[in-house]
Amino acid sequence: MFGFLKRRRREQLRSTPFPVAWRKLLEEKFPLFMRLSERDQRELEGHIQVFLAEKRFEGCGGFEITEGVRVTIAAQACLLLLHRQTDYYPHLRSILVYPDTFVFRSSRREEDELTDKRSRSRLGQSGGGAVVLSWSQTAAGAAEITDGENLVFHEFAHQLDEEDGVVNGAPVLTADDTRERHCRYLAWARVLGAEYRRLRQESEAGRETVLDQYGAANPAEFFAVATECFFEKPRQMKKKHPELYDELKDFYQQDPVTFALPPSPNRQN
Question: How far apart are CA 87 and CA 90, in angstroms?
Answer without folding.
Answer: 6
